[in-house]
From TrEMBL:
Residues 599-695 form the Peptidase S74 domain. Signal peptide: none annotated. This is Peptidase S74 domain-containing protein. Keywords: Membrane, Transmembrane, Transmembrane helix. The lineage of its organism: Bacteria, Bacillati, Bacillota, Bacilli, Bacillales. Residues 1-20 are annotated as: Disordered. It holds the Pfam family Peptidase_S74.
């Protein structure tokens, strides 16, 4: 019985009974014998032409270009009647018509049931189905999208092709090089694979979905968004596997960006969710248009997404899983979405590069917020070279638009971000830590550039630039001392910004310099080679727009030259400041000319003759002494004795005597003694004249 079955499956399907098929097989053998004689006669060149399909009866196959290797995978070139071999099976061998009218469901299901591990070939044609196909783990191969079409007719809520679970290690299957079309109703899953952990952990199953086109039957008005009449809830629904390769796929859905999304079916191009794991799902060179959701990342999926164009969607790439695998990759991808371009959560070691995300300017205003890239609890990841904008040139959208919205995401490295038009916030940080930004370029006229909210901390924003119209920064409840912002021309912005400079070839402990701003004070310091041992050498204090004081701490102070000098050193206000104090005195003052003390009558009041004269001078005791600090002999007066002399004369106040109220140290202004000395000389002179007059 099995032998008869093999004979039938390996002969062209003609609609004959088995006995008739045997006779047909004999005729076929005779034809092959004649063909061999013919090829022998035409030589090598003729054989090459025949292999290329130029000989009558050999229709060229789009997938026979690789010779024997390609043929072993996809099946050989075929004629019009259908032929099968031990390593492949032609669906026409089991009665599939492929004429677009005949219901081929039963015939193709029979071919799939009989595949026995062989790849199944779908010659060019339109194969009509009215119920779900159950496929073993083999590769279903057509002759190219537009040539081989699987038409799923009136299959409301039904699946198209559902792959069976495998129990052999290392097998592969898939659907390749054909169009999958739905007519008359929305289907559920166009292609579905099992969510069975054994396919990952035990059997290491692999899938190939390449060279596919998904669409409906009737193209709608192009001006309304270039969509079809019907589609699928999931175009591809992927479960557990050791590897999956989704490549060269074009899917056109039914979603109109100009209409209310809530009134349209929830269709997703690719949903990935596994029970145990989906290892290395590689999605490349995929275009979706008018599919409401582009890619859904569910539970336990490792993914690589590259060269994908998700156009006219409601949601681009979104994570919905609660048990996620990290280390995903997204690069060289375009997303046009009306709600969110890219949303990822609860993962680490993710890389996102070379991505452009936008919102269609003529989209429907759904009234909610819009996100270019939204990350929640994503850590230790790299994000770079990304442009995000929400065009509002046609539709004025309500809700808040965020270019990059990060919540609870720590340890991110980001560079080359370009927030563009129509954004209320370029970058919004909510309770994030340890971010490093570099090369930010805020374009267009939008809202706030960077918003720091809810304890966002330890964030460094490197060189960046704003076009006109942006409000640069917004600070919520954050510790601004833990935020560092560097603008062009080395402009630092932080609560306590500091700049450290290192001279790499400097002397030991002479390499490091630091400048710090804190509480209205600018400090310049030197540090040792371990960034410790800070020594201030300049301190500047300010209040508002006024400088309160400048303090220099150095062994030698050089001003405008090699000597300690200044062309003009003067106080800002006349007669209001002191030079030194009773406890901090100048040791020596050198001057080429005597000190000038202003004595203009216009500065004086209560002018009268001095009451201090000879009596005061006689009450003073000139002394010699040595200073404790130097030991050199000096001549002068004792301040305490001067105070006593004044008291004996009934003088309560004399500017020639001073006392520091803090330390109690007393001092003298010797120039104040000049007038009493002059008065004493005058009194003596008068007395001399009186005595001389008496003698005479």
């Amino acid at each position: 019985m099995n032998g008869n079955r093999d004979n039938v499956e390996n002969t062209p399907y003609t609609g004959q009974l088995p006995d008739e098929a045997e006779a047909a097989g004999m005729a076929h053998n005779r034809t092959d014998s004649g063909r061999r004689k013919f090829l022998a006669g035409i030589g090598v060149a003729g054989a090459a032409l025949a292999a290329g399909g130029w000989i009558r009866g050999a229709v060229p196959s789009a997938y026979a270009k690789g010779g024997p290797v390609t043929e072993s995978v996809y099946g050989p070139p075929h004629g019009g009647g259908g032929r099968c071999r031990p390593d492949w099976i032609d669906v026409r061998c089991h009665g599939a018509a492929g004429d677009g009218a005949t219901d081929d469901t039963a015939a193709i299901q029979a071919a799939l049931d009989a595949a026995a591990g062989r790849n199944v070939h779908f010659p060019a044609g339109i194969y009509r189905f009215t119920s779900t196909l159950s496929a073993p783990l083999v590769r279903l191969v057509g002759e190219g999208s537009g040539r081989t079409t699987l038409m799923f007719d009136q299959m409301a809520g039904l699946d198209g092709i559902v792959f069976q679970a495998e129990s052999i290690v290392g097998k592969e299957g898939g659907v390749e090089h054909m169009t999958l079309m739905t007519r008359g109703a929305h289907g559920r899953y166009a292609i579905a694979t099992p969510a069975d952990s054994s396919l990952y952990y035990t059997y290491r199953t692999r899938y190939f979905f390449t060279g596919l086109e998904f669409r409906g039957d009737v193209l709608q008005n192009v001006s309304s968004g270039f969509v079809y009449d019907y589609g699928w809830e999931n175009y591809i629904r992927l479960g557990d596997c050791w590897g999956a390769y989704i490549e060269d796929v074009d899917a056109i859905g039914v979603y109109l960006t100009s209409s209310d999304p809530q009134a349209q079916p929830d269709h997703t191009f690719l949903t990935m969710t596994a029970g145990g794991g989906a290892l290395s799902v590689r999605i490349s060179k995929v275009t979706t248009h008018g599919v409401k959701r582009g890619i859904e990342i569910g539970n336990r999926v490792f993914f690589f997404i590259s060269h994908v164009d998700i156009a006219h969607s409601y949601e681009g790439i979104v994570s919905t899983g609660t048990t996620v695998f990290s280390e995903g990759r997204i690069h060289d991808t375009l997303v046009n979405a009306q709600k969110v371009g890219l949303f990822l959560n609860n993962r680490s070691w993710t890389a996102i590069h070379n991505v452009a995300i936008g919102r269609h300017k003529s989209g429907y205003d759904h009234g909610g917020d819009w996100y270019g890239i939204k990350l929640e609890n994503v850590g230790k990841s790299w994000i770079g070279n990304i442009r995000v904008q929400a065009d509002t040139s046609v539709t004025v959208f309500t809700g808040t638009s965020y270019g990059f919205h990060f919540t609870g995401s720590n340890g991110l490295t980001l560079d080359g971000l370009i927030p563009g038009l129509g954004l209320h916030y370029g970058i919004y940080l909510n309770n994030c830590a340890q971010h490093v930004y570099d090369g930010l370029n805020f374009q267009g006229t939008s809202g706030t550039g960077i918003s720091f909210q809810n304890n966002s901390r330890d964030i460094i924003v490197g060189p960046h630039v704003f076009s006109n119209g942006w409000t640069k920064y917004e600070f919520g409840t954050v510790d601004r001392s833990r935020l560092s912002i560097v603008q062009k021309d080395m402009q630092l912005e932080s609560k306590q910004p500091f700049l450290v400079m290192r001279e790499t070839d400097g002397a030991a402990d002479g390499k490091h310099w630091r400048m710090t701003v804190n509480n209205g004070s600018l400090n310049r310091q030197i540090l040792n080679d371990s960034d410790g041992g800070a020594v201030d050498y300049e301190l500047v204090q300010r209040t508002g727009a006024s400088v309160d004081g400048i303090e220099w701490r150095a062994d030698t102070l050089y001003m405008n030259g090699t000597a300690v000098r200044t062309n003009d050193l003067q106080p800002a206000v006349d007669n209001a400041y002191t030079l030194g104090s009773a406890t901090n005195r100048w040791s020596e003052i050198y001057s080429a000319t005597p000190v000038i003390v202003t004595s203009d009558v216009r500065d004086k009041a209560n002018v009268r003759d001095s009451e201090l004269g000879l009596a005061f001078i006689e009450a003073l005791r000139p002394v010699s002494y040595t200073l404790q600090a130097t030991g050199r002999p000096h001549y002068g007066l004792i301040a305490q004795e001067v105070k006593g002399a004044l008291g004996s004369l009934g003088v309560d106040d004399f500017a020639g005597w001073t006392e520091d109220r803090t330390t109690g140290k007393q001092g003298l202004r010797y120039e104040e003694f000049v007038a009493p000395l002059i008065k004493a000389v005058q009194e003596l002179s008068a007395e001399v004249r009186r005595l001389e007059a008496e003698r005479s």
